[in-house]
Amino acid sequence: MLRERAPRIALAAALMLGAPRVAAAEPPGGRTAAILEGQEHVRRGLDLYEEGDLNGAHAELERAYEVAPAFKILYNLAQISLRRQDWVTADRELHAYQAQAAGNLPPGRAREVADTLAHLATRVGTVEIAASAPGARLSIDQASETLLPLTRPLVVNVGQHVVTVTWPSGERESRSFEIAGGDRVSLEFEPPPARPEPPREADRPARRRREVPARVDLRPRWESDDAPALVSHADEPSGRAHATAWSRSWMGWTGTAAALTGAGVLGILALRSSRELAADRGSFPIDPATLKDESLRTHRFALGADVLALAGAALAGLSIYLSFRGGSSD
């Protein structure tokens, strides 16, 4: 029967798997090697069980049963599952233990297993899942998925659960339910409606060409040839361009005059400064710093005159070009 604290599992691996007997003709990796490996997993499971790591102990004993199956391991697995309150797993392991023992259990152990199974029947329930779409996948409490339809109802622990169905289209539907001991719950899932496929190009109706109305001439029409003609503004841009060309031409001539006048003034100043420099050089004594300043001033006047003369020549050429362009547009 169910206990608040499960009994201590077997203390020696040999009690579960049996002591290996080494045969002279047995090839390496045979039955003896499997038993030795199984015993090692059992020892690890015993240590983890004593340390309180029930999940680790269950995993080690499961591996021992895979390597070297022995029905005594199933009993100890069931005891760990009872401690974990995993009633479904404990029920499965005890039923397997009872079946594999094949009536070779002592009377006390047989009664204990039968009483425990009777109590486990009140700690589990069954769930029937119906889904009309083949290929859908089912998972309970986000555990591993299984394909639908199911061949038999699912056995679950009492309490709250979440069932998720994943349809072939990838869409998911989840439902939660609560089940008590011995209950039987039926859930039915309907696949979502199929989404309409977009029409193919060949199935689309031909597009009607939109009729474009003829352009209507809104210009006024006169009834006689003696009617006054409409004033056209087509010549306005050319007239405006002509005036602009002449204004630029006059601006160019004005700039030319100013540049040449400035060149003349600077030239006169440069000539006067040059004469003063020559007179100072012929006198004695003379300060060298004064000669240097007068020479620099003469050079600046001459350079300014040259620059203004060149600018005046350039402006004169531009003015001549603009004058001819303005005259040709008449």
Helix/strand class? alpha+beta
Strand order of the largest sheet: 3-2-5-6
Write the element-wise H/E pattern from the N-terminal end onward.
HHHHHHEEEEEEEHH
Shape: elongated
In terms of topology, how is this protein built?
Layout: H1 13-17, H2 31-51, H3 54-67, H4 71-83, H5 87-101, H6 107-120, E1 124-131, E2 137-140, E3 146-147, E4 154-157, E5 159-166, E6 172-179, E7 184-189, H7 236-282, H8 288-328
Parallel strand pairs: 1-7
Antiparallel strand pairs: 1-4, 2-3, 2-5, 5-6
Helix pairs in contact: 2-3, 3-4, 4-5, 5-6, 7-8
Quick structural summary:
Helix content is 52%, strand content 12%. With 330 residues, the chain is α+β, with helices and mostly antiparallel strands.
Question: Can you characterise this structure?
Answer:
The longest helix has 47 residues, at 236-282. The model is unreliable at 1-8, 10-16, 18-27 and 222-236 (pLDDT under 50). The N and C termini lie far apart (123 Å). 52% of the residues lie in helices and 12% in strands. The protein has helices at residues 13-17, 31-51, 54-67, 71-83, 87-101, 107-120, 236-282, 288-328, and strands spanning 124-131, 137-140, 146-147, 154-157, 159-166, 172-179, 184-189. It is of the alpha+beta class and 330 residues long. Strand 5 (159-166) and strand 6 form a beta hairpin. It is built from 8 helices and 7 strands. A 4-stranded antiparallel β-sheet has the order 3-2-5-6, with no helix packed on it.
